[in-house]
Amino acid sequence: MDKRSKYILLMDIVPADECRYKFHNSRWMVAGKADPEMPKRMYIHPDSPATGEHWMAKGANFHKLKLTNNISDKHGFVSFSFVLCRLVAQLFAKCFEFLQFQ
């Protein structure tokens, strides 16, 4: 990572498979086919864009990330359906055109 270049840190949540799950008897069990995929909303880290020096010095956390299964959410929460998901942190997508983000 270049200290002077600007980077955006973002997170997207994608389904791990095409099944719906429920928590039963202290474990997750398949409960049918998943609902159709909801509109995607990527979460951009609030410090973005920032220099490589910033990210290397401070690191990043996602404690302000809010999740919902409400597709009509108007609060900017990241929507997901109740399937087991894997987090895909698309770390440090380089800002080639930083002026767009000011």
Automatic annotation (TrEMBL):
A GO CC term attached to the entry: nucleus
InterPro entries xrefs: p53-like_TF_DNA-bd_sf, T-box_DNA-bd, T-box_sf, TF_T-box, TF_T-box_CS
Major site of localization recorded for this protein: nucleus
Membrane-spanning segments: none
Keyword annotations of the record: DNA-binding, Nucleus, Transcription, Transcription regulation
Gene Ontology biological process: cell fate specification; positive regulation of DNA-templated transcription
Domain T-box, residue spans: 1-84
MF term (GO), any: RNA polymerase II cis-regulatory region sequence-specific DNA binding
Keyword Hydrolase: no
Subcellular locations according to the entry: Nucleus
Protein name: T-box domain-containing protein
